[in-house]
Amino acid sequence: MKGGNDVIDERSLLLLGILMAQSAHGYQINDFIEKNLLYVTEIKKATAYVLLDRMALSGFVTVHTEQAGNRPPRKVYSITPEGIEQFQSLLRQNLEHPDSPIYKGDVGLMFLDHLPKDEVAHHLQQRLQRLQEQMNLFQKGLSHSHAAGIQLSLEHRLLHMQLEVDWLERIAAQLQSSTDEKTVQ
Amino acid sequence: MKGGNDVIDERSLLLLGILMAQSAHGYQINDFIEKNLLYVTEIKKATAYVLLDRMALSGFVTVHTEQAGNRPPRKVYSITPEGIEQFQSLLRQNLEHPDSPIYKGDVGLMFLDHLPKDEVAHHLQQRLQRLQEQMNLFQKGLSHSHAAGIQLSLEHRLLHMQLEVDWLERIAAQLQSSTDEKTVQ
DNA sequence: TTTTCCATGTAACTCGTTACATGATTTC
DNA sequence: GAAATCATGTAACGAGTTACATGGAAAA
């Protein structure tokens, strides 16, 4: 009744998916994630190393150690047939189930009425500015042409960012105008 | 260098915010959250009880025990002046900082190319259907008129849901049509 | 009379992060 | 010669969830 397959583990899916393209060692994988997938996942290096070893125990990947020159030895992971099946199973589940992301900002929104409107407007404009900076950085990373799927997922992310920007502009303007009215009348 | 104020704690903000409206006991608060804020927060009952007691130790709330009939005694929490300051501070931070939600579904998107297009289209249509069901439920809860801020945050959530629906419909249609082409030609 | 609701609390556990250890090697 | 990169690993810690304990009252 407990087990682990109820909640989909998108971290394993990610690692297996990367290994579907080619075998790789941990450092390589972590590097790729850090440089390209900042907005897609929050997995940390230590976690990835542990997960890779765990997947080796489960038989989803095999390991063999490589030595290049006399640099630190690399543990190169390759996906196995069972790993491929697991990957496909996780992928299907991931595709079928909508995720319910939590927007932490919604908690603040709930209590807007406890601060003066113009102050709220000011804070939201701050938020807007930061968001736009994030979006600029994000779009730079977007142009480096990736595989089709990666491109798609980054564009998906961008759509939600853009919605957020539009929404913030609208709300901030509303708050602004409603305080202006009072000032004018 | 570590401390607790670096990452904004939206759970405390939520609890303090609820107590800004009126004093309440733990069960009452948990009940409200469970019935109204399913999509806003993931805080669990046990966590809320612990947090309320912790905030009492920090002086942000006071507790007094009430007995109604001989039902289980209630621990009623009231926000203190220091609590109000903390609430406002957390609220300002929450409003100023955009959140970077993680869309777990984006991980799956990255690896679309590893399944046949028509299968992907099928899975995404499944996802779409489930999402629409969620949205129906959500909209029912939306109509029960809440305070202005709560209404706003729920509408915000709805916007993102709607974007997701539109996006899914577009992508699923694209995948469908590109497999149709092959069938026709 | 069995189930659900009221009302709180906590021990055990899971999961993941932080922070550090190690050591060679290229770059500045 | 100092700093960043390469490459992995793990112990300690923290946060939060699960699952259970308790026990009366109201609803079915």
Short description:
The structure is a homodimer of 185-residue chains. By secondary structure, chain A is mainly α. The first copy, chain A, is 66% helix and 8% strand.
Textual characterization of the structure:
The structure is a homodimer of 185-residue chains. In chain A, 66% of the residues lie in helices and 8% in strands. By secondary structure, chain A is mainly α. Chain A has 2 domains: 87 residues, Winged helix-like DNA-binding domain superfamily/Winged helix DNA-binding domain (Arc Repressor Mutant, subunit A, Orthogonal Bundle), CATH 1.10.10.10; 80 residues. A 3-stranded antiparallel beta sheet of chain A has the order 1-3-2. In chain A, a hairpin with a 7-residue loop joins strand 2 and strand 3. In chain A, helix 1 packs across helix 4, helix 2 packs across helix 3 and helix 6 packs antiparallel against helix 7. The relative contact order of chain A is 0.10. Chains A and B meet through helix 1, helix 4, helix 5, helix 6 and helix 7 of A and helix 1, helix 4, helix 5, helix 6 and helix 7 of B. Chain A binds a DNA duplex (28 and 28 nucleotides) through helix 2 and helix 3.
